[in-house]
Amino acid sequence: MNDELRYLSTRVTKGLMSRRDFIGRAAALGVTAAMANAMIASQVRADGPKKGGTLRMAAQGGSTTDSLDPALATNTVALQAARFWGEPLVELDDDGGITGKVAESFEGSDDATTWRFKLRQGIAFSNGQDVTAEDVVETLDRHAGEDTKSGALGLLRDIQDVRADGDTVEIILKSPNADLPYLMTDYHLMIQPGGGKDDPTAAIGTGPYIMKDVDMGVRFVAEKNPNYWGDLGNAETIEMLVLNDNTARVAALQSGQVDLIDRVPPRTAGLVARAPNITVHQTSGPGHYVFIMHCNTAPFDNNDLRLALKHAINRQEMVDKILFGYGSVGNDTPINASYPFYTEFEQREFDPEKAKFHFDKAGVDGPVLLRTSENSFPGAVDASALFQQSCQAAGIPLEIKREPNDGYWSEVWNVQPFCTSYWGGRPTQDQMFSTAYQSSADWNDTRFFNEQFDQLLVAARAELDQAKRTQMYADMGTLLRDEGGLICPMFNDFIEASSDRVAGFIEGVKGFSLMHNYAPMRMWVV
User: Fold this and answer.
1) How many CB atoms lie within 10 A of CB 175?
2) How far apart are CA 168 and CA 107, in angstroms?
3) Rounded to whole angstroms, how far apart are CA atoms 316 and 339?
4) Is-contact 406 441, C-beta < 8 A?
5) Residue-wise burial string across 495-506, b where 16 or more C-beta atoms lie within 10 A, e elsewhere
C-alpha cells in the first residue's frame, strides 16, 4: 500500500472519509474495489477494537412465541439473545476446539467417565451475585429433569450424577464419553443463578450484556453488563431486530437501518456484495436445509414412502437454484466433511424410477402433504416447489401448504409430520446424533426410534480407537440414510453481511453462523 492510500484508508477508519470516496480515489490509482476494501479491513484490524456506540443487527428466525428461557431456544434469534446475557461452562474457539467460559479449565478421568470443571475465580452474574458450583449443578439438573422441555435433554441423559466440590463441578457419567466437554458448549446450557429454577426467563447470566428491552419476535435491546468478567462486548448497546422477510432484512442493511444481518439469501448475495459499503461473509460448515418426516406417523411410518421421497428429490438442482453455489449437495445424513470422524457415502442421486418403485410399493392413497415457510430456511418455499416438480416426474403427488412465518417453530416444526426445517449442525457427531436422532432426544424431529442406532451411539462415545469410532459413526449414518426420516438435499454455507459502519468480523471461524453467534459482541462500531 503506498503512502497516499495508507493515509486515505486511515481517514476512512476514523470516519473522516466515506468508503465510497476512498474506493473512487483508489480506482483512480489503478486499485480495484475488492483491493480497496481489503486495505480498509487491514487498517481497521491494525487500529484495533473501539469501545462504545450502538451496534444494530437484523436476524431471521424469531417469532412472538419465543422465550428467554434458554432451555426452550429453538431458532437463531433465541440463540442469539441467549448469547448476549448468558454463557455455558465452556465454548467453541475459532478453530473448533474448546475454550473456557464459566469454567476456566476441565479434565477427564482416564476412562472418560468422570469430568471435573474448575470454575473461573471472581466471576459473577449480571445481578452481582457470585457464581457457585451449586449454580452449575442446579442448571444441569433443570435441563435434565423429568419435566424438562430443554433442547439439551438428549445430551444429558447419560449423566449419572453432578456434584459441587468447592469451586469445582464433577460430572459422573453412566458410560464413558470422550466428547463430554463439547456437549457442555450447547447454547441451551447457559449457567443461571440457582439453575434458573425460580425464573428461567429472567435472562440473568454471566454474559457481556444485560437485556434491557425485549419484544419477542420484534426487537431486543442489550446493554453492557457492568459485572462482566471478560473482554467481550465492544459496543455499549446492541439492538437486534427480527426481520424474517428476506427482502426487508437486506433492505435494512442497504439503507443503513442496521449494520449486520444474518441469512443473506443466496439468490441475492452477489448483488448485495457489489455495494461499496457492504461486505458479504461466507462460511462453510455443518449447517443443512432439510425436509423432515415423522417415522412413526402415517403415511411416513412406511419406509418405502420415505425412500420414494428421498429418491424423488433433485439435490444438485436445489444447490444450484436455492443455494446458488453457496453450499454443497447433501446425502440424507446430517454429517458432512466438517465433522472430525467423517465417512463419505455413495451419493444418492435423483432417480424417478426408483422413487416410483418405492411409492407404488408403499401403496399410499392421496397426495403427500408438505408444510413449509420462508422462516424455516431461506428459499424453503421455492425448494418445496422444486421438490414438487421432481416428485411429479416419479408420479408422486406432493401437496404444499405454506404456513405463516410467525409461530412456525412452535406450531409446525417438531409437531407436523412432514415439513421443511434447518439445522445449524453441532461440533461433533455425538452431539448432533444425541440432540436429534437418539430415540430419547426431545428434539428427535424425525421420530427416529432405532435400538441399534442408540447402542452404537453409546458405544462410540466410549471408543478411543479413532478408526473404530469412525466406522461406528459410518454405521449410524447408514441407518439414518436408509431408514430415517431425514431428507437432506443440501448443506448451506452461512452467508452474513455487514456495513462499513462496523468492523471486526473474522473470516473463517469454524463451523457456525455469525462467528458462532459472537459477531455482535466481537465487532465494533467504527
Assistant:
1) 13
2) 11
3) 22
4) no
5) bbbbbbbbbbbe
CA-CA distance, 20 to 275, in Å (whole number)? 9
Q: Give the tens place of pLDDT for each residue, 160-207.
A: 999 999 999 999 999 999 999 999 999 999 999 999 999 999 999 999
Give the integer Cα–Cα distance in Å for 387 and 289. 13
Cα separation, 401 vs 416, whole angstroms? 12
Sequence-ordered list of residues with C-beta below 8 angstroms from that of 489, at least 6 positions apart, any chain: 289, 290, 291, 313, 314, 315, 318, 319, 329, 330, 383
**Do 505 and 511 touch, CB atoms closer than 8 A?**
no
Stretch 365-379: mean pLDDT: 94
Superfamily of domain 54-63+207-281+495-525 in the CATH hierarchy: Periplasmic binding protein-like II (3.40.190.10)
- The alpha carbon of residue 433 and the mean position of all alpha carbons in its chain are separated, in whole angstroms, by 15
At 210, is the secondary structure helix, strand, or coil?
A: strand
Cell of 245: 422477510
398-402 β-sheet, strand order = 327-329, 486-492, 288-293, 418-423, 368-372, 398-402
| 118 alpha carbon, distance to own chain's centre | 27
Measure the CA–CA gap between 224 and 387, rounded to whole angstroms: 46
| Nearest residue to 376 (alpha-carbon basis) of 352, 351, 397, 407 | 407
Q: Residues near 312 by Cβ (< 8 Å), separated by ≥ 6?
A: 350, 352, 355, 359, 387, 390, 391, 393, 394, 396
C-alpha span between 376 and 289 (Å, rounded): 8
**Type of residue numbered 434:** S
Domain ranges of the chain: 3-47, 54-63+207-281+495-525, 87-196, 288-492
Global confidence as pTM: 0.82
Cα 36 to chain center, whole Å? 32
Pseudo-torsion of CA 311, 312, 317, 321, nearest 10°?
Answer: -130
Q: What topology is assigned to 288-492 in CATH? A: Dipeptide-binding Protein; domain 3 (3.10.105)
- Does 3.90.76.10 match the CATH number of domain 87-196? yes
CA atoms of 454 and 448, how far apart (whole Å):
10
Q: What's the rounded Cα separation, in Å, for the pair 320 and 316?
A: 6
What confidence tens digit (pLDDT) does each residue in 328-367 have? 999 999 999 999 899 999 999 999 999 999 999 999 998 9
Is 405 in contact with 376 (CB distance < 8 Å)? Answer: no
At which residue does the C-alpha cell 442489550 appear?
Answer: 222
Strand partners, 22: none
